Every structure is written in structure tokens, then in C-alpha cells.
Amino acid sequence: MTDELDAAGILDPHLRACYLRCKRLLAEHDRSYYFASLLLPPAKRPHVQAIYGFARHADEMVDGTDTAGFGPWRDRIVADLKAGDTSDDIGRALLHTMRTWDIPVHLVEAFLDAMASDLVVASYETYADLEVYMHGAAGTLALEIAPVLGARSAEATEAMRLMGIAFQLTNILRDVGDDLRRGRVYLPAEDLRRFGVTELRPGPEFRELITFEIARARELYRRARAGVPLLHRTGRQTALAGMQLYGGILGAIERADYDVLSRRVGVGAGRQLAIALPAYLRSLAARIG
User: Fold this and answer.
1) Second CATH level (architecture) for the domain 121-289
2) What are residue 123's DSSP bridge partners?
3) Partners of 183 in beta bridges
4) What is the pTM of this model?
5) What are the tens digits of pLDDT across the range 107-156?
6) Domain extents for the chain?
7) CATH second-level architecture of 1-103?
């Protein structure tokens, strides 16, 4: 990544180490976002990796063993970002990215509020309620990367927000079993009632429920893809590849016969490479063009 940091003009040794930590977090915990970030020009990659590396750090705190430490950390980070200085390594890379791309702090604050809600909210009554959460948990992140990808219009920015919500709904569908074991049910209660699902267990009702939610997610991806041509040419392949990689999880759920209760399905490395390599070549052509 040192060449990428050089390209981005990030020369301070400590700041470079902060960005490298974000990159490692993203590469270790979310290969889809990491692969998609590599499709950007080198000067832009560290900034996307800082945004999603920060998000991954927060998510790991909420879902890991340091839940008690999340609240104080969140309050300290938000105060630091508003003050314009922080000693937190993850926060320092994010703060530099926010300054570089004029990203407002309220997006980070809304994201952290959504993460905090995971510690106290175990279910959602309606899809509208869930949509508010998904905007905070992922729509905000997509809005943060929107200027890096070259979104310069309200339509393009809204398409990126919808992309983030599609990612989050896909995550929810993939992680039904894991979340259930944590005591959380993100699938809206109104949808469970609609399909006669009284408890989350295999069966025709559960299959119809997941089929319905998959169709909902695919519609979000369709609407998000419509805005991709409005991005800067060097950002389009990152958005498209991200949607292909994450959207591929929906197909994997179908091929697994909708078993998201006993297993965590995903897109295999071979399929990821089949998506990433052509996209990388197209991204190179876009930079030349």
C-alpha cells in the first residue's frame, strides 16, 4: 500500500501506519469491499479503505467481546472528529479522509448511532423501521464514499445510498442464523406475519419470506445500478463490482436452498476473482481513457 499512500500524498509516517491498519482490517474481515477498493486509482484506495476499515472496527466491537467499551469509544471519537483532532489510529485515518473529501461528521455520527442500536434493539416491527437502521448502518458509509467514487449530483449520491442499503439487506439475509444466535431478528415482524412465520426455522413459510426479501434487495441493486453511469469513470467499476460481489450472495442463498439458519453462505474465491479481474481491467481502461 505504500505506493497507494504515496499517490495519495500521505507522507506522515504515523498517518501512513493508521491507513495501513485500516487496510488490514478491511482485507481481513471483508474481502468484497477490499477487492472493490482495488479497482480505484491508487490515490483513492486508501480513503475508501479508511472509511470501511473504521466501519469494520466499530462493527467488530459491537459484535465482539468489547461491547462495554463501544459507547465510551464512540463518544470520544465523535467528539474528536468534531474537534478536528484524535489520538485514535483508526479515527485519525478517517479524519484525514473526511478532510480530503469534505465528508460531514454527521454521517459518521449516524453510522455509530446505528451500531449502538445493535446493543439495545433486538427486532424491527416494519420495513420502514428497518430501513432507518440500514441507512445508518450502511447508507451513511455509501454516502461517505460517494465523493471518492465521483458522485457529483443528487441522483448519483442517492444511487450510492441505495447501494449501501442493498448491501446491508444482503448482510441481514446472509446472517439470519448468526444474528438469531445473538438474540437479534432484523427481518421485519410485519413480513414474518405476512408469510405466516411464527418462529425462524426451515419450512415453506420461511422460504417464501426469504424469497420475498431477496427480491426486495435485488430491486435496491437495480435502482442503485441506474446511477452508476453518473459517477466519475474511475469510480464506476468499484460500484459495479461491489454490487456484483454482494449481490452474488443472494444467488448463493438460493443455491443453498435458502438455508441461512444453520450456515453462512458466501461467494467463493473463484467467483470473486471472476468478477474482480475483468472489472480491474475495465478500471485500468477507464483511467487511461
Assistant:
1) Orthogonal Bundle (1.10)
2) 185
3) none
4) 0.92
5) 999 999 999 999 999 999 999 999 999 999 999 999 999 999 999 999 99
6) 1-103, 121-289
7) Orthogonal Bundle (1.10)
